Automatic annotation (TrEMBL):
Source organism superkingdom: Bacteria
Ranges annotated as spanning the membrane: 12-34
UniProt xrefs under InterPro entries: DUF2125
Keywords assigned by UniProt, alphabetized: Membrane, Transmembrane, Transmembrane helix
Pfam hit, one: DUF2125
Protein name: DUF2125 domain-containing protein
C-alpha cells in the first residue's frame, strides 16, 4: 500500500515536471519568435522593404533580455536602396520590448552615420543621443516617435563641390497612421546651416512642421512603395520658422504635387514682427535692403502694422495673389 502511494506521488511529480518543461519550452520558442519579429519591425522602421528593393542589415545580431524582456543588439546597421541609389551606414543599435507588450518597441541608435547617393551627395552625421519608440501593427509599423539630441551633419556634393554644415540642439519627429493617411510632425530646435555660399550671421532658428499626406499611411509600414512626393497631396497644418523675440513666420493650407513635380495649393502666410525680420535679413544679406523695404511695405499694407496675413494660390508652381497677380514661381521639386 505504501509502495503504491509512493509510486502515485512519484508519478504526479514527473507529470508536473514534464508540464513545467513543456511550458518553458513553449515560452522559450515564443520568446525567440517574438525576438525575430522585433528585429523585423526595427529594421522596417529603418527602411527595410525588400519587395521595394530596400534592404536593412543588422551586423552581429544578438538577442538579450530573456526571460522577461526581448532585446536586439547590433554592432552596426546598414541600409541599401538599390532602386534609388542610396546607401547608409549607422553605428550600434539597441532595441527592446516587454514580453507582455511586444508590439511596443523602444530603441537607440549610435553614430556616426554616413549616407551616400548615386548623384554624388554625401551626408555625414553624429549626435549625442538618438532614441525612438514604435508601435507595431501586424507585421508593419503603425506609429513612431524619434528624438535626436545635439545633431551635427556635414553635407557634401561632389557634383557641385559645395559643402554645408547643419547643427540642431534637438530634433523631434512623430509619424502616425491615420486611417489611409499619414500624419507627420517635426520640430527642430536651435538649428543652423552654414556654407561657403550661404549668408553668415543669421541667428539659430526653431522650425516646426505638422503635415498630413493623403493616402500615404503605408510609408511607415512598407506597404506604400512610392516614397516620393510626386502625385502626392495633403494639408500643411503648420509650417513655421521662429527666430525668437517674436520673429515668427508660418504657412498653412492644402497642397498637391503633380507627376512632374509642380506644386499646387491654397496657402495662408503669416508674418510677425516684420521690421525685426527685415533688420535680421539686412545684417546677413548685404545689398538686399531696397527689396526688403518694398516687401515689408507691401506686407504691412496687407496685414496692418508690424504683422501680415496673406492668402495666395499656387498653380503649377506659379504664386498668385488675389487669384491672378503673379508674384513668383516655385521650380519643380
Amino acid at each position: 500500500m505504501a509502495a503504491s502511494s509512493r509510486r502515485s506521488v512519484s508519478g504526479k511529480i514527473w507529470t508536473l515536471a514534464t508540464i513545467i518543461v513543456l511550458v518553458i519550452g513553449v515560452y522559450t520558442g515564443g520568446w525567440f519568435y517574438a525576438a525575430s519579429l522585433l528585429k523585423e519591425r526595427t529594421l522596417t522602421l529603418l527602411g527595410s522593404q525588400e519587395k521595394a528593393g530596400v534592404i536593412a542589415e543588422c551586423s552581429d545580431a544578438e538577442y538579450r533580455g530573456y526571460p522577461f524582456r526581448i532585446g536586439l543588439f547590433c554592432s552596426k546597421v546598414s541600409v541599401d536602396d538599390r532602386n534609388n541609389g542610396v546607401s547608409a551606414v549607422f553605428g550600434g543599435l539597441r532595441s527592446a520590448a516587454q514580453v507582455y507588450d511586444p508590439k511596443h518597441v523602444v530603441w537607440e541608435l549610435d553614430g556616426p552615420s554616413e549616407i551616400r547617393t548615386s548623384h554624388g551627395l554625401s551626408i555625414s552625421s553624429q549626435w549625442e543621443s538618438l532614441q525612438s519608440s514604435l508601435t507595431a501593427k501586424g507585421r508593419g509599423v503603425e506609429r513612431s516617435s524619434t528624438i535626436i539630441n545635439a545633431l551635427q551633419a556635414a553635407i557634401v556634393s561632389s557634383a557641385t563641390g559645395q559643402t554645408f554644415n547643419f547643427a540642431a540642439a534637438n530634433t523631434e519627429m512623430h509619424l502616425r497612421q491615420n486611417g489611409a493617411d499619414l500624419d507627420a510632425a517635426m520640430t527642430v530646435t536651435n538649428a543652423s546651416l552654414t556654407g561657403a555660399n550661404l549668408p553668415q550671421g543669421l541667428p539659430a532658428l526653431t522650425t516646426s512642421a505638422d503635415v498630413t499626406l493623403t493616402g500615404k499611411a503605408g510609408l511607415i509600414d512598407g506597404s506604400d512603395r512610392n516614397v516620393s512626393l510626386y502625385g502626392a497631396e495633403g494639408e500643411i497644418r503648420n509650417l513655421s520658422a521662429d527666430l525668437g523675440e517674436g520673429r515668427l513666420i508660418s504657412l498653412s493650407g492644402p497642397f498637391s504635387v503633380t507627376a512632374d513635380g509642380r506644386i499646387n495649393g491654397k496657402m495662408k502666410l503669416r508674418v510677425e514682427k516684420l521690421e525685426a525680420w527685415k533688420q535680421s535679413l539686412e545684417t546677413v544679406v548685404p545689398g538686399i535692403g531696397p527689396m526688403l523695404n518694398n516687401a515689408t511695405n507691401m506686407l504691412s499694407a496687407l496685414g496692418g502694422g508690424d504683422r501680415a496675413s496673406i492668402d495666395f494660390t499656387i498653380k503649377n508652381g506659379k504664386v498668385l495673389v488675389g487669384g491672378f497677380i503673379a508674384i513668383g514661381e516655385i521650380p519643380p521639386i
